[in-house]
Amino acid sequence: MVYDAVIVGGGIVGLATGLKILKSRPDLKIAILEKEAQLAQHQTANNSGVIHSGLYYKPGSLKATNCINGYHELVNFCQEEKIPFEITGKVVVATREEQKPLLETLLNRGLQNGLTGTRKITLEELKEYEPYCTGVAAIHVPQTGIVDYFQVALAYGRKIIQQGGAIFLEHKALGISQKDGISHIETSKGSFQAKLVINCAGLYSDKVARMNDAGVNDVKIIPFRGEYYKLKKEREYLVKNLIYPVPDPNFPFLGVHFTRMKKGGVEAGPNAVLAFRREGYKKSQINLGELAETLAWPGFQKVAGKYWKTGFGELYRSFSKTAFTKALQELIPEIQESDLVDGGAGVRAQACDRTGGLLDDFAIRESQYAINVLNAPSPAATSSLSIGGTVAEMALKRF
After folding, report:
1. Mean pLDDT of successive 10-residue segments in the chain (399 residues)?
2. Backbone phi, psi, residue 151, to 5°
3. Residues 6+ apart with CB under 8 A from 57
4. Among 310, 132, 134, which residue's Cα sits nearest to residue 231?
5. What positions does the domain FAD dependent oxidoreductase occupy (predicted)?
């Protein structure tokens, strides 16, 4: 059988893309290839579960438009499919005077992105939202929420099957070649033919892109591990909903924060450290070949030179629970080291170009036979239906 489109990667973005294509054209033959024995095992399943509002992203960017559109689509989908979620709101807190202008910039960005009701709050109001949080200034964002994205992804998968799509688990893409306008995808369990390949391979998206388009040699995925602690059950009262710091504008991560989880518990973190393999969820997980590739990449060398101080601080927090606690105490002084127990970790697929640019925006690139989603970090889960719609639109023009 020749499929109209084969999607490589059964994470939340790949599944949303398949769902959107089938919604518009239920007559098309669509298959999703996932290398694991279950869908959504990597960035999706290890996500912090925040429904992002669109506060941080440059107005007009793909991140801003897809996050805001995706937010509304996601909420509607959860309501229709009866997936539990909550719109909790969050506070973003400046803990030092020099952060106040950055907080003001964030507020203006949020308002430009249409976040009605986002506003500065007094320190007295901050205590009403988060009684144990301290700072010198704060804003409240009412749109932020929490959900279990693994459950969302499984629901996308169920809808795809219901609409006649096919999902193949334990099918790792090994190579892609073209003959007579058809792509031949070799997997660990067989081969597939497709008129179009859609690459949503996350942490391996650059490698899959190079299988279908030798011209994709200017971007490499750099894996950053984000490690979390959880608050002990008896100390969860210290956090009502979500508490964020003012992020460093030069570093594409949000800083350690507190998140109440929809599936229960309160997470504290994450830091952001280089992972020694692409799916390296633990410090002990090392792939020397993948690590060597990362270290040899000219763009990574430039990133390391530019951010070495920030990176060293993140690494120090990775190995020092005391240092991690100290960072959390900026927001909640009452937090003690003994309040924290080991949580999980996620690995973020961060695209980096040759010049040392950490791609801030989503990056989707088309070639003759493929559409490659090359950069879709946070807020990709929130934005999934919107990104899926964008990719589906590109795909449908070909049929």
Report:
1. 98 98 98 98 93 91 91 97 97 96 94 94 97 98 97 98 98 96 96 98 97 90 95 97 87 82 94 94 96 96 87 88 94 97 94 90 92 92 96 96
2. -65, -35
3. 63, 64, 67, 109, 113, 379
4. 132
5. 4-394
Tokens of 127: 């205590």
Q: Which domains are present in the chain?
A: 1-85+143-218+361-399 (3.50.50.60), 90-142 (no CATH), 220-353 (3.30.9)
How long, in residues, is the chain?
399
Contact, 171 vs 189, CB < 8 A?
yes
What string of H, E and C letters represents the secondary structure of 317-368? Answer: HHHCHHHHHHHHHCCCCCCCHHHEEEEEEEEEEEEEECCCCECCCCEEEECC
Structure tokens at 96: 């030092």
Q: What is the pLDDT of residue 11?
A: 97
pTM of the model: 0.95
pLDDT at 147: 97
- The secondary structure of the chain in percent helix, strand, coil, rounded to multiples of 5, reads 35, 30, 35
Q: Return the closest-CA partner of residue 16 out of 362, 336, 281, 307.
A: 362
List Cβ neighbours of 34 (8 Å cut-off, separation of 6 or more).
Answer: 9, 10, 14, 167, 168, 169, 170, 171
Question: Which pLDDT does position 250 carry in this prediction?
Answer: 64
Cα end-to-end distance, the chain, whole Å: 17
